[in-house]
Amino acid sequence: MNFTDITFILQLTVATATPIALGSYAGLFSERSGVVNIAIEGMMLMAAMMGAFVSGYTQSLFWGVVAGMLSAAMMAAIHAVVSIRFKTDQIISGMVINLLAAGFTGHIYQIYLVPPRWPGSAGTFPELPIPFLKDIPFLGKILFQHQPIVYTMIILTFVIHYVLFYTPWGLRMRAVGEHPEAADTLGINVYFTRYANVIIGGMLAGLAGIWLSLEWVGTFNINMTGGRGYIALAALIFGRWTPFGAFGAALLFGLANAVQVYTQTLVPEIPAEFLQMMPYVLTIIVAAVRRPIPPAAVGQPYEKE
Fold first, then answer.
1. Least CB-packed of 15, 29, 180, 301 within 10 Å?
2. Are 246 and 25 in contact (CB under 8 A)?
3. Is the pTM here over 0.85, yes or no?
4. Is 232 left (phi over 0), alpha (psi -120 to 50) or beta?
5. pLDDT tens digit string along 208-224?
C-alpha cells in the first residue's frame, strides 16, 4: 500500500461516513429530547427514494433534495405523534415506520423508477474542490475534494455542537431529555421541544438518504440504505450522544467500509460478501463493548400533571 492508496482510503472514509454521521445527528436531536428513534433507517430510505423520484421527473437535483428532506420530516412527524401524543412504545413505532418505508419505496420503485415510465436519473452532485485548501499536502484531497453534502455534514458537526451546548435551544433540549418534569416547572414546553427536535432529526436523516441516491449512486435501489440507519444509532451510542463523538464513530465505520472497498478492488479473489460484512461486524463489537449512559428520560412518555 502506497501513499496514494492511503489518501484514497481516507478520502473514501470521509465520504462514506457522511450518511452515518448525519443519521447519528438525527438520532441525537431525537434522543437528547427524550424520544428513542430507531426509525432513522426508514427516514433515510424514504428520502433516498423521494430524492431520486422527484429529481428524475423534474430533472432538478435541488427539488430532489427538497422532496427527500420533506418526506423524511413527514416520517419523523408520524413517529413523533405516535410516540408523544399517543404514547406508543417508541421502539415499536420506529420499527413500523421502517417497515412502512421499505414497502412503500419498493412499490414506488417497481412502478415509477424503472422503464418504461422512468425518465432517467438527473445525475449526482458534482465534486466541488475548495480552492487553495485542496492543494494542502495530504489533507487537501482527504477533506477538501468532496461533493456538497459531505461538506454540509462536516459543517453541521460544529453547528450542532454549538447549538447543543451553547444555546438556549440546546439547553431546553437537554433538560427535556434528562428531567422533563423539572423542565416543565421552569416553563419549557416539553411536548413542543420533543416534536420539534424529532422533526429536525428527521430532516437530517433525510439528508443522509439523499446522499445515497443523489450524491453516491445517482439513482434509487430497493433497500439501498443497507442498515446504515442502525449503524448510525450505534455511532450515536458509541459517541455518547455528542456530535463530535458521533462524528468520530462515523469515521470509524466509514474506514471499515473504505477498507472493504479498497480490498475488494485490490484482492478480487476474496468474496465480496465477506468484505461487505466488515461494517456490520464492527457495529456488533461496538454495541457489545461500549455501554455509555443515555439521557435519563429517553424512551419515557411524558404526562403533564
1. 301
2. yes
3. yes
4. alpha
5. 999 999 999 999 999 99
